[in-house]
From TrEMBL:
Pfam families registered for this protein in UniProt: Autotransporter (PF03797)
Name of the protein in question: Autotransporter outer membrane beta-barrel domain-containing protein
């Protein structure tokens, strides 16, 4: 799968453009009373970052390009009930994600341009929710499938800490640290599929 994202941060502070290629496998194993599921995904991303700094009379623009690769593994368990053609039930899974970004060197020759060290990040995501699936035959060859998944996510993150230095002061390292204000989120997903044989 190929994907492109274009994200503005606070309108004028920064912009990122990321192009990535991803591949993965998914497996579901049905048992008598419940089912098990698992997945493995990996990807490679190329990001262009543009940021602006405006402090009093000082103004500068910085550009950088860097690559990243990511891996995630997921295992889960669920239970399905059927009622008049509708399949529904609870679902829970745990997903581990790994991201490595290579060193980032801003292209601006200004001494305030940043050099950011390469870094590994880990995250663990837990999900508990409910899914509903309904399949309806429109004709002998046409089938419409409706799917809904909703639930609660909780993220267990590492420190999200980056080591960096200014271009003209590479020996004087400092770090930036990010923190999510809320590690819980509501997740909703809906799909409609049409199949014709």
């Amino acid at each position: 799968m190929l994907n492109t994202n274009n994200i503005d941060i606070d309108d004028t502070l920064a912009n990122t453009k990321t192009t990535g290629a991803y591949a993965g496998i998914f497996s579901k194993y049905d048992l008598e009373d419940f089912y098990l599921l698992g997945s493995f995904r990996m990807g490679y991303e190329h990001t262009k970052l543009n940021r602006n700094v405006n402090i009093g009379a000082f103004s500068a623009n910085y550009n950088s390009k860097f690559n990243s690769y990511l891996i995630s593994e997921m295992v889960g368990i669920g239970k399905s009930f059927n009622h008049y053609g509708v399949s529904y039930g609870p679902l829970a899974y745990i997903e581990h994600s790994f991201l490595h970004h290579f060193a980032i060197n801003e292209e601006n020759q200004n001494s305030t341009a940043l050099n950011i060290d390469s870094k590994n990040f880990h995250a663990l995501n837990s999900f508990m929710g409910f899914n509903v699936n309904y399949e309806k035959g429109m004709s002998d060859k046409a089938i419409v499938n409706f799917y809904f998944l909703g639930g609660w996510n909780h993220y267990f993150l590492d420190s999200l800490k980056n080591n960096a230095s200014f271009k003209d002061a590479s020996l004087n390292k400092f770090y930036t640290k990010s923190k999510l204000s809320n590690q819980d989120s509501l997740y909703l997903q809906g799909e409609i599929d049409f199949t014709h044989n």
